[in-house]
Amino acid sequence: MATWSAPQIPPFRPRARKQFWNYPRPYRTGWKAWLPSWRFVVGTMLAGFALIGGVAVAAWTGTTIEGEVATATLETSVVKFAGDGGTLGEFKAEEDRKIVTVDELPIWVANAPVASEERDFYAPNNLGISIPGIARSIINGSGGGSTLTQQYVEQYHMGWKASPTYTDKIREMIMAMKVRQDPEGYPVEKILDGYLNVINLGRGSFGIQSAANAYYGKQAKDLTPSESAFLAGIIPSPNTYDASEAGQEWAQGRWKRTLRLMHEDEWIDDAQYDEAVKAGFPTPKEQKPRSSMGGPKGYVLAEIERELADQGFDVSTLNRDGLVVHTTIDKKLQARAEKEAELPDDAKQKTRSSLVSIDPKTGAIRAMYGGPDYTEEKFGQNAATDNWQQGGSTYKPFTLIAALEKKISLYETYNGDEPQEFDFYTQRNEATGLEEPKPVTNFGNQDFGEINLLDATAHSVNTVYVQLNNDVTSAASADVAKRLGLGVEGSNAYRKWEDGGKKEGGPGEAEDDISNVLGTSYVYTVDLARAYATIANKGVRTTPHLVDKVVNPDTGEVLYQANYTPESDLFDQQVIADATYAMQQVVDNPEGSGHFARSMIPEERPLAGKTGSSNDNYSAWFAGFTPQLATVVGVYQFDTEKPGFEPITPFGGFEAVTGGTWPVQTWTKFMAPALEGMPIEEFPEPSLQPVPSPTPSPTISEPALIMVPTDLVGRPWADVQAALIALGLNPQPRTVQGHGNEAPETVVNVVQAGQEVPAGTQIDVEITGGEEETSTVPYVIDMNVAEAETTLRQAGYNVSQQWVENDAPNGTVIDQSPGAETELPPNQTVTIVVSNGPTEDPDDEPTCGGIFNDPCDDGGGEPSPDPTMSEPGTEPGPGGGNGNGNDSATE
User: Phi/psi class of residue 608: alpha, beta or left (left: φ > 0; alpha: ψ in -120 to 50)?
Assistant: First the structure.
């Protein structure tokens, strides 16, 4: 029997002590070897909670409610000229903060902010902070989320900071919670008192008392429930209401919401709520400019504030934080602008002038004149940025650039005689309903014969440029205007369009119309200066701006820095060089419309520019530049009571104010000293050397005849249009009804079918139309002609004028066709009959210098830019318009 023996047991070895870093973990394979154990996870979490708790306890115990700071102190911000030029102006609150208490105010005034901003303010468990609000601000990456208590603490116990740190915000929250935990030391009435006396409500007002006066001209205790709802509603964005129409709509929505919440929370009763709703929105009084905004500088300061707001800067800080705003404005140039652009004493109060001067290379605005006194209500609008005028012949260079892009030479010749009629430049005949050619004339009724584009630019020849615009297409001219900076991002017009979107036909937009070459579109002075600055900068576009940077002087922190990137590759630089050369002739040609500039600026200094006068002399311009400075001067006349544009009443010794008179004189008197000391820079060389114009000849060659096809009926309008254009004809559709069996836009008749007609002839094509949309023609009888035309165009109609002798005042509409309340499709023409005024007594003395009267001198041309500079009749008509009201497709 075998002897049994126990198995051998290996000697016991104790488990080795684990190292601090025990990864990869033993007895695990793959990715599981790197997973931490549950003990490690729990231990880490507990340690983290302990650390956070310790920090929180330390922060809580280490934070005490500090004594009250001087919250009523509002520090003034200083606005500096460029460089070391000194102080331009300042931003400060209009008045000292007026302290009121909750006990002095009606319940609806004191608690309107509670209803709008923090409905649980009075709740016993109110923590003093809003966890959802803090979460929203973190998620959205923006400010906000502060409770009324936090804002009280920030203003009264910490002192407001433009750029608070995370530590500051944590201290603020802890102090807010401690305040709400001490109801005896800090009752809710005291917190609300403090809040109501520090809240920023716009218009330079801080506190409910100051705001009540700024918006409604009364004390806070006299505010109605509706007015209180408005003020509480705008707390999130207090400057928005006065910024735009969109801002006013936003404020009205906030007012409705706050009023409803005040009613739901029983701060007002049913009767008060119903009364407020029935009365409607409590429109505040017009904003009164602050006293620190007096004089011409006020327009610049207001524009600085608006520019910063558009860039997302909190402009309320300008009125309380003692900041320093560094501008682009040159002190010497600004002083000169204010002196020269101010109108003479004999100018009508309705006449306004503007000047904007820009550094073409950077877009920095070096000088801006928007009016004589920003604080005077009659001059409250900035003539350079708020009011727009027809551009007149300052738009001709846009068509010239389009021509050069299509390889049309500066020495291409056109017939410059007048009057001329063109099939493509028409007006509707109300009797027949057909489009008929409209005569195009030149300023002063001058004939130029065969003339090249170089000389036609110098003399601003309308008949030549209308032909040129047809050759290049009006769409191409409009496209050039946009690339130069009109109606695109960065322009003043673009900023004013709601939501930054395109508003059809809005100011600053070069419309696609054959008459756009004559400046029938409206433009802001600052935008026109931008366009000419782009030409001066060889086609590189910049963004006009007034602010360089904003600095906190206490810390040196730069709170805002302008950063605008120039846009290149918009134009061929040789095209711009050739256009600039043509614009030099406006100044350098002894008979050029802008030659006055050479009376004060030597010939070795290159200059280029363009005069402009709009239809019926509603506006007059001179836009000119050197490589270092682009400046535009404009003047217009607008009756705010009618309202409407008016022909400029002559002033300053001129028989008529056109671009070649006061505007070019003012431009020259500004630019001559502005250019002193600047190095002379040359314009780029043109691609062609000068050649003499051919001998003027009015002879026009006999055009070839084209047979109008007879097989077009029944075809789609688009096909027929393309076929006729290919033949060199000008097809014009006329929608007719009564062809229900035909598809929309089917050709049913070609009026001249089978006839031989010259090239370019208008061919009337009748096409079918669907059910037409109509609208009601507005009533315009007894209106001023400008107001009537604006009213009809805003309603979607074209306008034709007929002037007749009548006892009604000159320019008054006495009849219209179709009549008011008539249902008429859009884009149809409404004819207005306008009074020329009563026939004058033949024994009366002749009237000199009126828009519709010949001058009393023997000369046949425009008065010279300076009556002392030349004999009457020796100076050709300054460019822009023709002086006869016939320089646009519609009058």
Answer: beta
Residue 576, C-beta contacts closer than 8 angstroms, at least 6 positions apart: 401, 535, 538, 539, 684
On the question of a cis peptide bond just before residue 113, with omega within 30 degrees of 0, the verdict is: no
Closest of 305, 62, 114, 117 to residue 202, by C-alpha: 305
> pLDDT of 800-827, one tens digit each?
777 778 888 877 888 888 887 777 776 6
- The amino acid present at 218, given as its one-letter code, is K
Confidence of residue 786 (pLDDT cuts 50, 70, 90): confident
Report CA torsion sign: 519, 520, 521, 525.
positive
- Closest Cα to residue 890, out of 755, 792, 818, 778? 792
* Average pLDDT over all residues of the chain: 79
DSSP secondary structure string for all residues of 59-124: HHHH---PPPP-TT--BPEEEE-STT--EEEEE--SSPPPP--GGGS-HHHHHHHHHHH-TTTT-T
Distance in angstroms (rounded) separating the CA atoms of residues 204 and 214: 8
Q: Annotate 741-784 with three-state secondary structure.
A: CCCCCEEEEECCCCCEEECCCEEEEEEECCCCCCEECCCCCCCE
* Tokens encoding 252: 């009205």
- How crowded is the C-beta side of 586, counted as CA atoms within 13 Å? 30
Question: In this predicted model, which residue has the larger pLDDT, 711 or 550?
Answer: 550
CA 632 to the chain's CA centroid: 17
Contact, 522 vs 507, CB < 8 A?
yes
Dihedral, 836, 837, 842, 844 alpha carbons, nearest 10: -120
Q: Which residue is it, tokens 């330390």?
A: 58
305 versus 151: the higher-pLDDT residue is 305
Calpha distance 31→800 (Å, rounded): 85
Tokens 């649980």 identify what position? 120
848-872 CB burial, b ≥16 within 10 A, e <16: ebebbeebeeebebbbbbbeeeeeb
Strand, helix or coil for residue 198: helix
Share of the chain above pLDDT 70, in %: 77
Q: How many other β-carbons are positioned within 10 Å of the β-carbon of residue 278? A: 7
> Two tokens at 766?
């009748």
Q: State percent of the chain over pLDDT 90.
A: 32
- Give the best-scoring range by mean pLDDT among 67-71, 135-139, 766-770: 766-770
Higher pLDDT among residues 118 and 51, named by residue: 118
Strand, coil or helix: 366: strand
- DSSP annotation of 220 reads G
Number of Cβ within a 10 Å radius of residue 752:
15
Pure H helices in 318-450: 331-340, 396-405
Provide the 3-class DSSP secondary structure of residue 157.
helix
CA 860/CA 878 separation, integer angstroms:
13
Instruction: Evaluate whether 752 touches 779 at the Cβ level (below 8 Å).
Output: no
> Interhelix angle for 208-216 vs 188-198, to 10°?
40
Q: What is the pLDDT of residue 753?
A: 84
Task: Assign 826 to helix, strand or coil.
Answer: coil
Strands 829-835, 813-817: pairing is antiparallel
State pLDDT tens for residues 10-58.
554 555 555 556 667 666 777 777 777 767 777 778 877 777 666 666 6
Cα gap 681→623, rounded to integer Å: 19
Q: What is the DSSP string of 430-458?
A: TTT--EEE--B--GGG----EEEHHHHHH
Contact 100, 208 (CB under 8 A): yes
Residue 828 tokens, joined: 């149809």
For residue 679, the tally of other CB atoms under 10 A from its CB is: 7
State the pLDDT confidence band at 361, using cuts at 50, 70 and 90: very high
Quote the pTM value: 0.61
